[in-house]
Write a structure and sequence with these properties.
This is Duplicated homeodomain-like superfamily protein. With 323 residues, the protein is mainly alpha-helical. Helix content is 54%, strand content 2%. The structure holds a DNA duplex (21 and 21 nucleotides).
Length: 323
Amino acid sequence: MGRPPCCNKANVKRGPWTAEEDAKILAYVASNGIGNWTLVPQKAGLNRCGKSCRLRWTNYLRPDLKHDNFTPEEEECILEHHRTIGSRWSLIAKHLPGRTDNDVKNYWNTKLKKKLTKMGIDPLTHKPFSQLVTEYGMISGLPSTGNKNALLHTSLANAEPYLLIKEISRAKAINTQMMGKFLDPFSRNLQWNAMAQFQVMNQENGSSSTSSASSSSFVSPLSYSCERSQIQIAPSSPSECNEYILGDPFSSVDTGQMSECRTPAILLSNKDSVSRPENEKITQLPAKHSTAAADSFVDGILAHDNQMRLDFPNILDEYYDDY
DNA sequence: AAAAGCTCCAACCGCCCATAT
DNA sequence: CATATGGGCGGTTGGAGCTTT
């Protein structure tokens, strides 16, 4: 059943490549070109997995690769595209001739992320931390109760950016993680019914939407109430879609205080959100959440999508074309 | 001088989707 | 149709080299 294995994983060499091995791959590609990588180890006389050979060629041996430092122009390019699409390294690398996704990813992780942080810019959202704090405060109201928010207040008062960043990142991570529980593994769409049932269970168990981050309940930054099998979401405006994912997990929200939202990088960075045709994005959503409010959320995503395409026609259209 | 900590990046891991069998 | 691989991708890691203590 199925294809034969490409190699005996247990017996192939791993780790750093020697000059001789590199020479063998270069010689093989020079005479045979790039084809089936699983045949390369055998034909080139290498005791390596084909996948490992492909990676070595792609990330290091390709003759068109640059091995010098990134230029300021390249740096700017990475920043701009990362701000737009997030950590889609292969897509970003397409805009940088001679650079691989691995190069871009390493450069981001070792240099740019730190550089932005030092400049007071959140590398995830590309917003100034001061703005994040303002928005965070507007979202949560920063009530004085609760250890987490107390820590935020302390961080602010004592000017401890590290703690502040850590807490905001933690908040984002927790909500992202919780949202992940409600993503359909196949369609990657939110499982609204599951979210609703989860919320109902929490309410029945005496949990409220003000539960702490240490509990396992997902707390939308938007105030919504749930009835059995029906979720009612009431965002104050369609533009607040990203707060579903990046919002405050610690406290309930006065939706009237919601701040202006930009197109969420985390949504754009979702491969499926980019790759799916527009009509499919809508029709795949479960019927149960076809309330006016939920529709406005979908509309919000689509509106942002359209806006982004208007704002960055050259960039996003390329991505759409790629899929 | 040497131990500890830090930076960088090549290589690996594990997942996904398309495709071959 | 079921199963396994190929290729692509993003995330993570190991270790060499450098810096700090």
